[in-house]
Amino acid sequence: MRRCLSKLTPRQMGFTNSNSFLAGSKNITTTSNAAQVDQTKHSSVSDMLVDSFGRFHTYLRISLTERCNLRCQYCMPSEGVELTPKPQLLSQSEIVRLAGLFVSSGVNKIRLTGGEPTVRKDIEDICMQLSSLKGLKNLAITTNGITLARKLPKLKECGLDSINISLDTLVPAKFEFLTRRKGHERVMQSIDSAIALGYNPVKVNCVVMRGLNDEEICDFVELTRDKPINVRFIEFMPFDGNVWNVKKLVSYAEMMDKVVKRFPSIKRVQDHPTETAKNFTIDGHCGSVSFITSMTEHFCSGCNRLRLLADGNFKVCLFGPSEVSLRDPIRSGADDETLREIIGAAVKRKKAAHAGMLDIAKTANRPMIHIGG
User: Fold this and answer.
1) Residue 99 backbone class (left: φ over 0; alpha: ψ -120 to 50; beta: rest)
2) Cα(313)–Cα(280) distance, rounded to whole angstroms?
């Protein structure tokens, strides 16, 4: 018996070909105040999460570690990266303290990233403490799935609400080429384990790169036919060391052309204004399909995301080089009010939108493994 998505967005818009789809998608693009929230519903302390464009930031991504058990080509240079010494990384108590500040100010979703977050030995304790924060509605994780199947039952007990698993190919030999490691079977097992434990949907992140995995797009869509999987196709993005080239980029429009030809019943759903993905359902499929279009159709106007890096640096934009340390003031004895002022000032400096993809490629930024996926 198929286990389908328990909740589907009620309003759906249908498109019979890629041209009508693209026209329709523009009709539901959010305006510049898309992420604005009725501020009267929030206490004055939440002003630290409102930027100068009125965007209210309710989503915090916390990188638990820079270490990873894979070496994905789009994430890490072939020679590896210099890791931050352990004493300079945030401790468990520091992570929980900072998370508590953000949640008490209005953050209602936290995502744990890395590196690979499951390699951190105290991840279960961290999940337990974060899930207990009053006001937090969702605790999520993005993982490569290599060790997830073994750890997931306990993580679920500790309050983990949702899962994204990174997988860029369904071909084991290609997996080894892309990640420079073995482990494809273990990732597939983790996907099935998550489904068996009741996670619905299980999100599968796929970075699409021309000449490497773009011919597998429809194969990934097939995963959604009988299982509650949300496949999320991500445009290839430039970061230090990943040898980004515009020729490797497979655009959202090109990906949609491939999908529409094979699955003509694909329908756009009504997305939340702060949603980064463009989401779709397909008639007869339990799961769904999404596209993250950071390069060709950015979603900066609705951005509600902030990032806390493993070394304690605070980053308000994935593609912006600006960072401010929260670790240093904590270790210098700063009280919560001082930390709020530092966070609020950084949020206020957030720009309206990131640069174009060619400019991003020229801008100094850290490797993705340092920033957190």
Assistant:
1) alpha
2) 35
